[in-house]
Design goal:
Belongs to the peptidase S26 family. This is Signal peptidase I. This protein has three helices and 13 strands. The protein is an alpha+beta fold. It has one domain: Umud Fragment, subunit A. It is globular, with a radius of gyration of 20 Å.
Length: 251
């Protein structure tokens, strides 16, 4: 049904908050066994993690290779959740909930709705275990109103008629094996993975509601840094040429 790669490369599992370091708890002087003190400290740490995760920063574990080499399988990244619709730029690497924009494979695991299931899922999310949610990570290529076309006579992607150089694309990949010509609807984004030959992105969902685009309101945040493994620690490039193309009028 989808013209692109099979959407088996579910991109992200929601993970822990950026505040996942717990304090070095010690038994209180008033408790010889130390049990209540440990429980109290653990409870405080969990509350802090929930607050930070919900308001400021969220950590994600990336299991797939759809964003190589920008993001490698197994990388853990931090996402800035203080991102408004007007602050999203072309070239941004964003995490979003694709469940409302993209058709979901019915084989995707679902979260238990019971009390125990919700509790276990919350703990799993805090420590970075995949609970089967429909979160994805891609690069923003088209903003609302943009016309995104692939490809021109030189095989390059164009945005509003301007050919784009894409140094972040996985070595050996073409901008796209699939041709398309789309005007991004109001309040939506056209997104693509950097590993174009291994990414089920907007191209793979052209037949879904929104023509493969995702809702701006579904963006969870902007990826800002890889923090693990230590050998790959660093931020993400925001291509100036892509970001500098004049913005089209919102349709």
């Amino acid at each position: 049904m989808n013209p692109g790669p099979e959407p088996s490369d579910q991109d992200l599992a929601t993970a822990s908050s950026a505040a996942d370091r717990q304090p070095d708890a010690k038994a209180g002087s008033g408790d010889a066994k130390g049990g209540p003190s440990w429980l109290l400290l653990i409870g405080i740490a969990l509350v802090v993690m929930v607050l930070v995760r919900g308001l400021l920063v969220q950590s994600f574990y990336v299991p797939s290779g759809s964003m190589e080499r920008t993001i490698e399988p197994g990388d853990r990244i931090l996402v800035n959740k203080l991102v408004g619709a007007d602050s999203i730029k072309r070239g941004d690497v964003v995490v979003f909930d694709g469940s409302t924009s993209w058709a979901v494979d019915d084989r995707t695991p679902h979260q238990d709705d019971g009390l125990i299931g919700r509790t276990l899922a919350s703990i799993a999310k805090a420590i970075g275990i995949d609970v089967g949610e429909q979160d994805f990570i891609k690069r923003v290529i088209g903003l609302p109103g943009d016309r995104v076309v692939c490809c021109d006579s030189s095989g390059r992607l164009t945005v509003n008629g301007t050919a784009v150089q894409e140094p972040y694309i996985y070595p050996g990949d073409k901008p796209s094996e699939l041709t398309f010509d789309i005007v991004v609807p109001k309040d939506r984004l056209w997104v693509m993975g950097d590993h174009r030959s291994d990414s089920a992105d907007s191209r793979s969902h052209l037949g879904d509601p929104g023509g493969g685009t995702v809702r701006v309101d579904d963006v969870i945040g902007r990826a800002v840094v890889t923090y693990w493994p230590l050998s790959r620690t660093g931020g993400f490039d925001h291509p100036s040429q892509l970001a500098g193309i004049p913005r089209a009028s919102t349709p």
